[in-house]
Amino acid sequence: MTATAGRARGTESRVSGADKPERQVGMTRVLVVDDEPQIVRALVINLKARKYDVDAAPDGATALQLAAARHPDVIVLDLGLPDMDGVEVIKGLRGWTRVPILVLSARHSSDEKVEALDAGADDYVTKPFGMDELLARLRAAVRRAEPTGAGEDDVMVDTEDFTVDLAAKKVNRNGRDVRLTPTEWHLLEVLVRNAGRLVSQKQLLQEVWGPSYGTETNYLRVYMAQLRRKLEADPAHPRHFITEPGMGYRFER
């Protein structure tokens, strides 16, 4: 990749964040969290070449500190950090921010991917990776996080069983807020914004989990079951989250 160029720059690509000037107006800030110097250098060089503002952290504690101090627009996070598991970093971030988190990890198992996504990650890329694909996913994550028009965000959706406030990102049932995981909320939001329309399995997978997910229908079954348990009066006979066998799902008020 571009590790040679990175080595020539020495430690300049290890960004502490404390002494950096504020980002220029319109620049997207990326926080790279990885303890492999070659990967950090390659990412920093490629991102800066594309006019991103970049901070970097070698461990979870530094990542949490930089995220709070620098407010990145997107985070690229390795799971195998020296001081804590990356999933714990995701949970720590999700306690106060919905910034897009793109996991970059050598872990390939389905269970580990589900754990990271359930904790609040927005996408998952396995190492080794192609720089072009990673940058495309990063751009997609940033686009999904961009606020929509004011009229579209000021949406309250009422059903007989619960209310969805898309602007506040809250769900209320019987006078009480329902706690949803970030993945559950993202799935609900896509369905609610397409109320009455069939949303294909592939579309749901790609919008919620990322562009490389199009066939993992077991993810949908698991999370739809969780939404029904939390929101349907009779989860075994849903009236709001309808399955269209072999095709997708539909939200009905």
UniProtKB/TrEMBL annotation:
Lineage: Bacteria, Bacillati, Actinomycetota, Actinomycetes, Kitasatosporales
Keywords for this protein: DNA-binding, Phosphoprotein
Domain Response regulatory per the UniProt entry, residue ranges: 29-142
Annotated positions of the 4-aspartylphosphate modification: D78
Protein name as annotated: DNA-binding response regulator
Comp. bias intervals (Basic and acidic residues): 9-21
Gene Ontology MF terms: DNA binding
Domain OmpR/PhoB-type: 154-253
PANTHER family: KDP OPERON TRANSCRIPTIONAL REGULATORY PROTEIN KDPE (PTHR48111:SF50), REGULATOR OF RPOS (PTHR48111)
Gene3D superfamilies in alphabetical order: 3.40.50.2300, 6.10.250.690, Winged helix-like DNA-binding domain superfamily/Winged helix DNA-binding domain (1.10.10.10)
Chain residues forming the annotated DNA-binding region: 154-253
UniProt-annotated stretches for the region Disordered: 1-21
